[in-house]
Amino acid sequence: MHTSASKGQDVSLAPQVYDVLSALALRLGVRVSARELQAQSAQFGEAPLTLMAVAQALARHGVDARIGRLEPEQFDPRMGPVVFGLHTEGAALLLDREGDACQAWLAAPSASEPVWRSTAEWQSDWAGWSLQARLLASRDSSPMKADAHEEQPKHAAHWFWSVFTTLRTYYLDSTLAAVMINLLALATSMFSMNVYDRVIPNAAFHSLWVLAIGVSLAGLLELALRTLRGYLVDVAGKKADLLLSARLFRHILNLRAQDRPGSSGQFAGQLRDFESVRDFVSSTTLVAFSDVPFIFLFLLVIGLLGGPLVWVPIVGALLVLVAGWLSQWPIRESIERYQYESAQKLGFMVESLERLEQIRAMGAEPRLQGRWERLSATTARSAMGSRLASAITLNFTQFVQQSCNTAMIVWGVYLILEGRMSVGALIGCTILAGRALGPLGQVAGLLTRYQHAVGAFKTMDRIMKLEGQYNPDRTYLGISRAQGGLTVQQLQFAYPHTQRQVLQIGNLTVAPGEHVAVMGPVGSGKSTLLKVMAWLYPSDAGQVLLDGLDMAQISPADLRAQIAWVGQDPVLFRASLRDNLLMAAPHVSDERLQHVLRLTGMVTWVAAHPMGLDMPLGENGTSLSGGQRQMVALARALMSDAQVIFLDEPTSAFDAAGEQRLLEALQPELQGKTVVLATHRPGPLSLVSRIVLLDNGQMLADGPRDAVLQAVKEGRIKRVANGGAV
Question: Domains, the chain, ranges and CATH?
Fold first, then answer.
């Protein structure tokens, strides 16, 4: 992605601009709907969305966007289509030019065909930014692609290592700094050798001060280079952390239902461990490892100055490496146990905090306290094992360094007396030996962190390799407004890690604008059917169609815009009431917001609160009653004006009078929309004209509301047992 004009990168975009950008992508052979592009741009920044966020979203589809300040009067058709920002109409896609007139496509509803205007008109309306795009070489949309039966080479970059490839400039600069630092490290040993061998015997004070000034300047330069190296690695680490965190969270949100973890707290613990990977690639670790290759440089200089004396640090380095290699097994086993037990401990804590009221009501505090203490003791033992193995390795490394220093001095004395080396050379070799073994000591101290990072990386890599519900490399169908027809064909669904089929539906059709109730006993599959029909859970077999299109083929953003879903357990977020209401429809007008508040009956208690819509709801709406939480969830679904609405026990927490008022208000609001409703209560049945009766995941009856209710009352419909009707 290229950006040639930083001034235009922060331009906020009007919604109609995405239609123009979608048309630009289509000209390049990339199909991405305007709504999908807007949704993906939101992943790279909060509203108002900017050109930079759009450019990053386009890059995910293989389009390299170049943001600039090309003016309309500079447009040349040979450049290809160019998007120009406009003050009045948001943007225009310039396609052709003849003399002083340019042809462009506009997003305005009245401009279904390209329009011609004079260059002066385009120029006067220009908003100061332009966007050019080209197809990346990695995305070949030409008809010369290889046959589908031929094996295709995999070009997908690794989710982790590709980030560091993009930051290679920082690491190359830090490597160059490391080379200079280790070369300057030779200055101290050379200074000591010359002082002992030349300055002291000859009382050369002038040379002493010249050498002292030179080594001091070298030290200052080394200090500056070390600071610069640390800064470069820190900046690269920060950028890598931001990119990796975004990729990781994006993939987690896209996980299929069957791949989601059973314990959110335990899963959060595994994600938290990923911080150890981030810390491991920080400045301290990389600096220690970047100095290791220069051990050979120091050994070479020691060999030139001390001859056979070089064998002392060589043997010492080998002993340290062997000790570090042997310690990996106990450290790895302890770290793997610690990570697993730590994730369990965090999962237990989160589960307990979310259920404090139930725990107190049951009087289960002593039992849970005992389990917590056992988990803490187990985790502490595993952590102690890894720390002990690491401490033994580090202490042994320090012992080897001290022994090498002693051995070099003893052996050096004999070499001096034999006339094979000077006192200064011995001092210099001793200093260089310390510099040679120093990085190995630092690496030994990082063994525990290394194993922790490796374990966390394997866990994250396993998660990132899971297939997502939506493939970002796939081209989906875009729909602007659905009619609302739903069709289920040969549907089968089972929850993860279970053998029992929860749903087995042959054929079910809901006409556009039809209101259908799904009823049945507890555990019959009503809620699951709604989730599968809303494509929250992809089916194991069969198809779910929207207006004849398989939901698996529809653009995720376009599909979510057509469907609203209200679960039987309202899910609210720790934010204000306004934020919760507008989470799915941030651009809704105040008039629509007020209408929905009156429709759901929320306006009464919202107006009575001193903070109004800015009232904080607490975690999962703990400051609201059950009925109020259902009101918020229902209002949030109605805010988007979706064509298809799924309601799962929407009034279970309402009193009878409140339910009746709500149902009467919903009658005209739901007119013309497709509604699928799951309920046990008779009240919501006033909204529907048809009932589908489920039992054990199978359809028992499907017909007009009154006819099905009468059949049930007369006992003409029997339950399903052992997979068959009785």
Answer: 2-138 (3.90.70.10), 162-464 (1.20.1560.10), 486-725 (3.40.50.300)
Which tokens hold the place of 260? 């989601």
Residue 397 burial (C-beta neighbours within 10 Å; 0-12, 13-18, 19+): buried
Taking the CB of residue 197, how many other CB atoms lie within 10 A of it?
16
Segment 249-260 shows an average pLDDT of 77
- Distance CA(229)–CA(291), nearest Å, equals 12
Tokens at 524, concatenated: 């019959």
CA distance 86 to 111: 15
Residues constituting the chain: 726
Distance CA 556, CA 103 (A): 32
485 sits in the region (left: phi over 0; alpha: psi -120 to 50; else beta) called: beta
pLDDT-above-90 percentage for the chain: 13
Residue holding tokens 């002493």?
Answer: 208
Which uninterrupted H or E stretch holds 202?
helix 200-202
Predicted pLDDT of residue 108: 55
pLDDT tens by residue, 513-558: 999 999 988 888 899 999 999 988 888 889 999 999 999 888 888 8
Residue 441 in tokens? 């000591």
Distance of CA 713 to the CA centre of its chain: 52
Among 140-144, 367-371, 564-568, 696-700, which is the least confidently predicted range? 140-144
Task: Return all residues near 54 (Cβ < 8 A) that are at least 6 apart.
Answer: 13, 18, 21, 37, 41, 65, 131
- Residue 512 preceded by cis peptide, ω within 30: no
Tell whether the torsion through CA atoms of 4, 5, 6 and 12 is positive or negative.
Answer: negative
Angle, helices 311-326/423-445, rounded to nearest 10 degrees: 10
Predicted confidence (pLDDT) per residue in 301-345, tens digit: 888 888 899 999 999 988 988 888 888 888 888 888 887 888 888
pTM for this predicted structure: 0.71
User: What share of the chain has pLDDT > 70, as a percent?
Assistant: 90
Other beta carbons within 10 angstroms of residue 317's beta carbon come to 21
**404 touches 398 (CB < 8 A):** no
663/680 Cα distance (integer angstroms):
15
| Helix ranges (DSSP H) in 254-364 | 264-280, 283-290, 295-306, 311-326, 328-354, 356-362
**In the block, which residue shows the tokens 């995999």?**
154
Measured on CA atoms in the order 403, 408, 411, 414, is the torsion positive or negative? negative
Core vs surface per residue 66-102: b (16+ CB within 10 A) or e: bbbebebeebeeeeebbbbbbeebbbbbbbebeeeeb
Residue 279 has pLDDT above 90, yes or no: no
Q: Which amino acid is at 270?
A: Q
* 3-state secondary structure (DSSP) of residue 129: strand
Residue 129 burial (10 A CB sphere; 0-12, 13-18, 19+) = buried
pLDDT value, residue 648: 92
Angle at CA of residue 541, ends 540 and 542, nearest 5°: 135
Q: How far apart are CA 720 and CA 539, in angstroms?
A: 22
Cα dihedral 488, 494, 499, 500 sign = negative
